[in-house]
Amino acid sequence: MMKPANYSIGTPGKPWEQTEKQQWKMQQTIKRSYQQEVINKLDSLKQQFNIEQYGSLPYDEQRYPLFIAKSKSWLQDRPVVLVTGGVHGYETSGVQGAIRFLESEAHRYLKQFNFVVAPCLSPWGYETINRWNPDAIDPNRHFVTESSAAEARLFIQMLQQHGWLKGQQSLIAHFDLHETTDTDNSEFRPALAARDGIALENWHIPDGFYVVADTAKPQLAFQQAVINEVEKVTHIAPADDSGCIIGSKVKARGVIYYDKSSLGLCGGLTDATYVTTTEVYPDSEHATDELCILAQVAAITGGLDFILNQQ
């Protein structure tokens, strides 16, 4: 349903200028601690993984250093698996699911894979529980060359330095951990419509877990293996009456496709053979915070087990 954006900032139909963006930024507040909930947990993993800083967000370099965790026992002939979380900072289980995987399951696969885990690409967004960064930019539409989003730009530079960017050394897999929440419709899509001066189109929020494959290399059997493992933990999102999830046609149960590179999505950054974006629904009456974290971990292990069975 299309309707004029009704938002507390700006004039409906008129895109924001810098004044409105600054007004929006001034309304944001710190609600949780990146230091306590992410950095301290990574520090506790230093005996098992190499924790490396790849940059700092320019908004506050001391408060927002950026980290990856890498396998200590790195061997060049092992396939490399990339896990990303917190591209959208408000999507909590993506961040905590990436960390939980390192804490609880990664050890089972260390002889088969080299791991690179970036648990929180958007720490300012994590602390303020936001989809955007302080410049009112959605990082997950800006994973492009010379990106205007620092979160995306610094991550791209890291990938390039290690030879993992698209066109360089191929990774075997990339798991990009996300959530779809009720606040997508109540806050973030209205804010987007107001910022861009466009009509608002809300979508049906699916109750359950689903994945987004890359149109260029969907690897449907891999996506289904992820779904099957997650279903042991939580329920899978059904299609709506139009056979869609968030406006995209369902290709298999719990699976939709996006053209990730053209949309500037994190999942389109590499030439990984197997790529999936997970989407957990934390607002379901059947979900808990812990269940959502476990679903993210199950998505990774289900995908890894599938890959091992192909070798």
From TrEMBL:
Cited InterPro entries: Peptidase_M14
UniProt superkingdom: Bacteria
Pfam family for this entry, one: Peptidase_M14
GO molecular function: hydrolase activity, acting on ester bonds; metallocarboxypeptidase activity; zinc ion binding
GO BP field: proteolysis
Domain Peptidase M14: 30-311
Gene3D superfamilies, alphabetized: Zn peptidases
Sequence similarity: Belongs to the peptidase M14 family.
Protein name: M14 family metallocarboxypeptidase
Source species: Neptunicella marina
